[in-house]
Write a structure and sequence with these properties.
The complex is a heterotrimer. Chain B is an all-alpha fold. Chain B has 4 helices and no strands. Chain B has a single domain, classed as Methane Monooxygenase Hydroxylase, Chain G, domain 1. The two termini of chain B are 49 Å apart. By secondary structure, chain C is an all-alpha fold. The chains are: A mainly alpha, B mainly alpha, C mainly alpha.
């Protein structure tokens, strides 16, 4: 039982407990707060994996932007403020879908990652390598630019939907 | 990992620091709640209806534009770190990325999404 | 001469190791010690800067300010803290207790945590994480969550309205802030805050003054200070998001606001004004902490000055100023300076040299770009302002009809 194991356990409890809170909470604002807790747990796991950039992005984008957006979405949508019914008539279908997704993820996890017990070595200047790879034609140049176009499309779509 | 231990510690300490005076205030301060004192303060007028009124869609649009910009700029950070080692071509690629971002801004602007009406 | 902080640190490490404490535990003990030191230091400082601010704003407004408790009213804040401690923390009806009490704590914690990454001297920095500046932005974005929680859980329309207006403003100003934060990162080629300071043989504010100004304005808004105090516009929404808070819970929001204002000054000093750099700092590294705080205080006084003299803007003006002025200018500045800088790297030999003389060509070229962008920006905002004034003046306002003498208005 090393310190890392303990930290991992704490972060896993944050992540899973938060996730449970999101689906179990009847107050939508509480659900959003639980989501923040869960996202923090994931940020902690990223740090354990020595990916601090992803951890910072996790907090900056998910907690600082998406959680805020979700709260605002709750506020601009009518009839969502009070306690809402957490189950509707489609719950059996949803349960089957969730079980299928979980089975798939579990299968991939066991298949691909079993036998790996230590984190792979991370180069010290990983961030520089990532940045250089973003604009390297042999690296991720196309995904990088496509991401930009994708976000542009998302913005246009959202503005059109929200204003009409 | 040592650096992150410190951040974990300071997170705990900096949460405990404001918690302590609030707790002390709770303990030594008076505690005499009554209906009138606990009523919602809205400038002397009794509160009407539900607090969680519906907000206008403008808040949502601004949050959304912010989200798009936030994600895009985060992409730029590793690129900025690598900047000094990049060839001119690499910088131009990043600039194209920023120009697409600017196009999003211009679109939102022309569509009137940035007006607070 | 060795840095004083390093001497103390090494002494503590050897002391603890001598007692047979394991290396992990030594890190933890010293971490607790360091963070308690930072927090205690900030709390003491808060008492002082709140006094400075009250005194200065009072003078700006032609008042005397606190002058009863202690010499020049210096102990007024201690008296205030004691008073607030004995006040009841009222929990209003229908409040959502857990978020209601968590919100002031998170507001304060988000400010404290920024200081973990700010270097006091060359060596004395809480933590020198590889993603330094992103860590600072991520942590400070937690204060948005605190505002939302406070506004939502108070069960008060004014609080909710204040919180949502405030959040709309806070998230908007985060965009120019993170855009201009790219400037020190790309000039240094690192996100480590201490490396950014170390590379500033010539302060970045000289090379990129427009970026520094935009960064400072955006941060000023992030701290929610006048003229950007949408969060608590007293005349419109009473106290805004913390209207239902009393006693110590309110004091925590107050503390967070003042400390945040001081922290953004420290941040600007670190990223654009060379942080701990100053004369003889190479020989006596401990001097760095003095330079750092002189710079921080100078910028902080500017902050108080702005707060004392500028009037509050309307929310539509605030939003327009951010999205239609700061963001476009920041984008243009970023693109132009990066392109020009990269082209110049290929032409001028030893362009990336970091010695005092070696940095001159880069600084000069970037300054030129900044001056051009700055001139364009000022021309633009002057024209927009003139047009807006003309529009308002041309608006026909019907004169009020006065009731005739002797006739009572009903």
């Amino acid at each position: 039982m090393t310190v890392t194991t303990i930290i991992f356990a704490v972060m896993a409890i944050f992540t899973l407990g938060g996730g449970l809170g999101v689906v179990a909470s009847r107050n939508l604002f509480h659900a959003a707060l639980y989501l923040v807790l869960s996202l923090f747990g994931i940020a902690g796991l990223f740090i354990l994996l020595e990916a601090p950039f992803l951890a910072a992005v996790q907090v900056l984008v998910y907690v600082g932007a998406i959680a805020v957006l979700i709260t605002i979405t709750i506020m601009v949508t009518r009839r969502l403020m009070g306690p809402v019914e957490s189950l509707n008539r489609q719950w059996p279908v949803a349960a089957v879908a969730a079980a299928l997704v979980m089975a798939t993820l579990g299968f991939v996890l066991v298949n691909q990652f079993s036998g790996i017990s230590t984190a792979p070595d991370v180069p010290a200047d990983g961030l520089t390598l990532l940045g250089a790879a973003f604009v390297d034609p042999a690296g991720f140049l196309l995904p990088f630019e496509v991401a930009s176009v994708l976000l542009l499309a998302a913005l246009i779509g959202a503005i059109v939907v929200a204003r009409d | 990992m040592k650096e992150w231990t410190f951040i974990a510690i300071i997170a705990v300490v900096s949460l405990a620091t404001p918690a302590a005076p609030i707790l002390i205030g709770k303990l030594i301060g008076p505690r005499k709640p009554n209906t009138l004192k606990n009523a919602t303060y809205e400038c002397g007028v009794e509160t009407v209806g539900d607090t969680w009124v519906q907000f206008k869609v403008q808040y949502y649009i601004f949050a959304l534009v912010f989200l798009v910009f936030d994600i895009e700029v985060v992409f730029l950070y590793p690129w900025a770190v690598a900047y000094n080692q990049l060839p001119l071509f690499g910088v131009i690629e990043g600039v194209i990325f920023i120009i697409i971002l600017a196009a999003a801004l211009i679109y939102a602007w022309r569509k009137g999404a940035l007006e607070w009406t | 001469m060795e840095d004083l902080f390093i001497i103390i640190y090494n002494w503590l490490v050897s002391l603890l190791s001598g007692w047979g404490v394991g290396p992990v535990l030594v890190d933890i003990i010293l971490g607790v010690l360091g963070s308690v030191l930072i927090v205690a230091y900030l709390l003491t400082l808060a008492l002082f800067i709140i006094w400075v601010e009250r005194k200065l704003v009072a003078r700006i407004q032609d008042r005397i300010g606190p002058n009863r408790v202690g010499p020049w009213g210096l102990f007024q804040n201690i008296a205030d803290v004691l008073k607030l401690l004995t006040k009841e923390i009222i929990i209003p009806d229908g409040a959502d207790l857990v978020p209601f009490m968590l919100a002031p704590m998170i507001a304060v914690a988000s400010v404290f945590m920024i200081w973990a990454a700010l270097p006091f001297t060359r060596n004395a920095v809480g933590t020198n994480v590889s993603i330094g500046v992103l860590y600072i932005v991520a942590v400070s974005s937690l204060s948005i969550m605190a505002v939302l929680m406070a506004g939502w859980s108070s069960n008060n329309k004014y609080a909710l309205l204040g919180a949502f207006r405030g959040v709309a403003m806070l998230v908007s100003y985060e965009v120019p802030m993170i855009l201009t934060l790219l400037v020190p990162v790309f000039l240094t080629g690192s996100m480590r805050v201490n490396e950014i300071v170390g590379a500033q043989t010539i302060w970045y504010v000289i090379a990129m003054p427009i970026a520094a100004v935009i960064f400072y304005i955006a941060n000023h808004a992030e701290a929610g200070r006048s003229p950007f105090d949408m969060l608590e516009a007293e005349s419109e929404i009473v106290a805004g998001f913390h209207i239902e808070y009393s006693g110590m819970a309110f004091a925590m929001f107050y503390l967070a606001e003042f400390l945040h204002a001081f922290t953004i000054s420290a941040l600007t000093a670190t990223l654009f004004f060379g942080g701990w750099r100053g004369p003889f700092v190479e020989q006596v590294p401990t001097l760095g902490i003095i330079y750092f705080f002189i710079k921080t205080f100078a910028i902080y006084l500017f902050n108080v000055w702005a707060r004392g003299t500028l009037v509050r803007l309307r929310i539509d003006q605030i939003m327009s100023f951010c999205w239609k002025f700061l963001v476009p200018i920041a984008l243009i500045l970023l693109v132009l300076s990066m392109l020009v800088d990269k082209i110049a790297t290929g032409i001028i030999p030893n362009y990336l040299d970091t010695t005092l003389l070696g940095m001159l060509p880069r600084t000069g070229i970037l300054l030129l770009v900044n001056l051009v962008v700055g001139a364009l920006a000022f021309g633009w905002i002057a024209r927009t302002g003139r047009r807006e004034r003309e529009r308002l003046e041309s608006r026909q306002i019907a004169p009020v009809e006065r009731p005739a003498a002797g006739q009572q208005a009903k």
